[in-house]
Amino acid sequence: RLPKQQNKGVCCLLQTENAAEEPRVLCIVQDTTNAKTVNERLTLNLPASTTLSKLFNEVAHKAGYVSGTFDLAWGKTTDVAPLDLSSEMSLTESGFEAGKRNFLQLTDKDGEQPQLDDLGTADSSGLDDSSHERLMGPLPRDCTVGCSSDYSSPSYSYSSILNKSDTGYVGLVNQAMTCYLNSLLQTLFMTPEFRNALYNWEFEESEEDPVTSIPYQLQRLFVLLQTSKKRAIETTDVTRSFGWDSSEAWQQHDVQELCRVMFDALEQKWKQTEQADLINQLYQGKLKDYVRCLECGYESWRIDTYLDIPLVIRPFGASQAYCSVEEALQAFVQPETLDGANQYFCERCKKKCDARKGLRFLHFPYLLTLQLKRFDFDYTTMHRIKLNDRMSFPEELDMSPFIDVEDEKSPQTESCTDSGAENEGSCHSDQMSNDFSTDDGVDEGICLDSASSTERVLKPKVPSRNASSLTFELFSVMVHSGSAAGGHYYACIKSFSDGQWYSFNDQHVSKITQEDIRKTYGGSSGNRGYYSSAFASSTNAYMLIYRLKDPSRNAKYLDCDNFPEHIKHLVQREKESEEQEKRQKEIERNTCKIKLFCMHPVKMMMMENKLEVHKDKTLREATEMAYKLMDINGVVPMDCCRLVKYDEFHEYLERSYEGEEDTTMGQLLGGVKSSYMFDLLLETRRPEQVFQPYKPGEVMVKVYVLDLNTETIAPPVSLRAYLNQSVTEFKQLIAQATGLSAETMRVVLERCYNDLRLLYVPNKTLKAEGFFRSNKVFVESSESTDNEVAFTDSLLWKLLDRHANTIRLFVSLPEQSPGIHRTICQKVGCDPEESLENSKGSRKSVDAILEESTEKLKNLTLQQQQGSSTSDSQKSSDSSDFEHIKSPSPSQDGGASSDPETQFTGEERSDSEVNNDRSTSSVDSDILSSSHSSDTLCNADSGPIQLVNGLDSHSITSSRRSKAREGKKETWDTAEEDSGTDSEYDENGRSKTDSQYLYFRSEPYAQDDGSGEGQKCLLVHVDKRITLAAFKQNLEPFVGITSSQFKVFRVYANNQEFESVRLNETLSSFSDDNKITIRLGRALKKGEYRVKVYQLLVNDAEPCKFLVDTVFAKGMTVKQSKEELLPQLRDQCKLDLSVDRFRLRKKTWKNPGTVFLDYHIYEEDINISSNWEVFLEVLDGPEKMKSMSQLAVLTRRWTPAQMKLEPFQEVVLESSTVEELNEKLSEISGIPLENLEFAKGRGTFPCDISVLEIHQDLDWNPKVSTLNVWPLYICDDGAVVFYRDNTEEPMELSEDERNELMKRESSRLLKTGHRVSYSPRKEKALKIYLDGGPAKDPGQD
């Protein structure tokens, strides 16, 4: 379309009068409207004063288009509104930059291609035919999976796919993996007889829902394919009529299978209409399946119908493929001789005779479909494969050599068997069966509510017997590219209008040549023998469709003028719908979409939404839209709101828009963009306040004022400063806002978590100190001597350090605690003066306990301070007395809300189990934590200051804490650490050394559980650097017992609880508003391990049953642990056992392992770890295992004559020899040694296997002398061994008995969780539902 000199990117300088000295604008235009021009560039160098309308004219002149029939848009961004054709603004005023390259894209206007200027200079003759090859084959598609990596074509660009086809044909959008559907739909659309018949069918809306009507949705699709101006259209309405949901778009199917199933569905829908027999008339043929006796000539036969002919690519067992379709057809009708063991029983001879069996074609359909069976099964690798061998096919196919003239003339009523009408549409010869079917009994085809079993009468038309009546012309080749595992379909179709071949490749339609058709033959150059297909191209023809050359029947496509009236109405409706869609897209293209934030004036929480405003709307109108969107009507008047530019990530107000209320949003936001680098904030004020102007270049600072006397931090005050201000000027600015003295002021900048910087250089600028868009500073202006010491040793630093490391936790106390009765008097919002309810005896209230514990902690702190050394390290780590700091009042909408769904319930598990489940040695324990509050510690009790800008203290403390969580990971090193009994702690879990006091403060908090009684809780503020041991000691007064007698459980998402047991670990993995549950029970001491005990029931359907949780200790013998288990088993499990009537053994997942002997000692003879699991096995008699040299094997007899597996029996071997095992098995079974065979079970216990497979599948009678070598490897107790009598023959089963047994075995093995077979994943059957969707089977898994 472009002249050659322009294709080479020659720069065309446009000389204009009086423009010699003005700056020039370089425009580089990419024409994206056509695949042939997408890689070319059109370059123009224009004066900066050139108007946009002049630019359009120049581009139209150079590209050879009619001006006004295309759009120009910026090329470096997406989703941007096109430039205004009629604008008289200059290029510089429109955003073009002089002296720089300005990239533009020439695009379709309203979805239509630009009109060519017949008088223009551009042409397309410069393009050679090599482009045809470029357009042939599969195209890479964006975000589409399922296509095999076997094919790729580097010469395609994705942009070419998006460009509208210049062929006049419309593509189909690939939903995900629906290329097979697109290929078939385009083929049917390009079949005149099918398309015209579909148009002649009229939909009656009163009789059927249009959404579920398959013919109606196909009709709509065909109308759009013929009349739409779009590049490609969707097929979702068609697939929805099939009853498919979105998941079906991700299922890959066979195009021949789809064709058969779709035709069946159409026949069902077209019953009682003129199109009832359309599929048969167009696609159905007839053949005779016969067997002829070679002795007497008697022939038995039946007539079958077919919709397609499957042709074998390579005969079974052969190394060479058929060369052509004609050769494959000849092989299809070639009879085979039945002789030897395959002799045929002749009804006339009354004996088995040699016979000839074959197929004869009686009638060919008008539209002949040939399926090339390229998918086969490799019995060597036991995998499906694709045969890529070359098979040629002619453009005109003469089928007269394959017709049986005598049989065709013979009366069709002479059939000696049924015609097989119930199997209509498929061939029934062995040759036509699907060799690689893995259906496994899953039905394919249509699902009918009430499928009719009425047989249809077949009356195929017999063509006239002239030579031309059986000549077929090829018009569709459906190509598969890829492997048997997956690939891509596209169609090569010849138009009957002009005889031109086209490639329909999903969205892309292009012209192709006969040479491109020949490339789909498959194969490769040279002869590679049997493996030739492995080196051949994976892109080859899969289905061929021919049409009979018969001028009396060959139809032409209906044009729009000859459409039936109901189709004309449908075209009009679709056109109106398309116009409406265009208008909506035009609005979308001119709509600015940007994030909108607003701090609610009452709730003081940041709200977020998306503002969608047309680019021509003014700022005033956009503010009204934002006001309504945020739903603050009645809270704040409209005149107390404004929109400002905002950076949500840095919480930074960039600028305000004073005096620009009538400016359009497109100008303020810099045009319509897919995303913006900033946000908008709807700012509010009180009526008596005045909005503060925000100028670009200012930085935002949140100032927190500290009081060293009360050790409190006030809510923040927001200021705006400049980066070039000095520290002295900044202090004066703070003094004006806070009333503090600038002379004694200390300012600390918090740049990131735990990075505190004291600003002490007066003349240094804020930029040099590290200020950015949004900043956080702490100020203090007292006259104390604290400013005389080093900053890291000062009380100011310690206060800020505590502020950064203190977290808020919700601790749920147990319902009953020994010796303590806690009564929570104060719920959220209750009167704090309300007296507490005291109960009997010496029980204390929570406030009394709090007061007592606080006093005790104070004394402990004073003692530590008096006894501390003066070393720098201790100075920096010591904490002062923080008991007088104001603690925050619990937030009413905080983590301890009254939502009954958030009660502390769930499965109790320990943190160590998390490690076991994840099979890792290092786990970030905060991964499972719930959402965290952004409330800060020291200012939560004070009312938030109403700021002019509407922003509250949205502190970045929460983000700082989250960073701390990222840096800390819990580790599992040794069993002692796992059990939480580090040597630093005594047997009661208390530290042996004096630990540094870290901040801990608590107050009562009641959570309503919905029963009227509040759940007793504590709201704890604690330094997260405290250890778990110290944390538990601080909780002792509230629980009422020592820390060794209660356990700490961390509550994760979904109320799952995990026990925290590592006493030496800190709380650094916890975060604000995490929940903790305290449960009564003895915590583990040093050397103790929590153990789960399961009962082993070898002959039960569920052999593994949980019994109890218990504790084993280091140095304890197995017998001692069994004695301690007895009371638990009796009380909790109702098992009344004696020590010598059960054993303990190793448990590895579900497998029983080593038998533990009574004298074994834990940690010496038996390795043990936290949350260990063991099996308890009840013995039928005295323990036979006395020594570690013995081997306990679980044996099971297989009796083929009864198709039955006997129960397990344990055999104890003194040595690991096969001879001893055989002797023991012979002894318990009575099978003679010479007849006994055994095999090791596969998989996990109980090594279940189907009785239909066990006789052949196991490795019987391995040729080894000892058990501990390959292939047995029986080295430990618990191995499963099957054995049998090799003289016993399997039971002979009838077909019904085998099927019944198969169902029973499948059900049994599925219940036990074992695989029924080793077959690969079954493909999902393709189904089309006539009732709108699949029926939901309540019993279906």
TrEMBL record:
BP terms from Gene Ontology: protein deubiquitination; proteolysis
Record field: compositional bias (Polar residues): 412-434, 888-905
Ranges of biased composition (kind: Low complexity): 863-879, 919-935
One Pfam family recorded for the sequence: Ubiquitin_USP47_N
Bias kind Basic and acidic residues: ranges: 906-916
GO molecular-function term, one example from the UniProt record: cysteine-type deubiquitinase activity
Keyword Transferase attached: no
Biased composition (Acidic residues): 973-986
UniProt keyword terms in alphabetical order: Hydrolase, Protease, Thiol protease, Ubl conjugation pathway
Enzyme Commission identifier(s): 3.4.19.12
Sequence ranges assigned to domain USP in this UniProt record: 170-549
Region feature (Disordered): 110-138, 403-434, 860-991
The organism's place on the tree of life at top rank: Eukaryota
GO CC terms in record: cytosol; nucleus
Reactions performed catalytically: Thiol-dependent hydrolysis of ester, thioester, amide, peptide and isopeptide bonds formed by the C-terminal Gly of ubiquitin (a 76-residue protein attached to proteins as an intracellular targeting signal)
Name of this protein: Ubiquitin carboxyl-terminal hydrolase 47
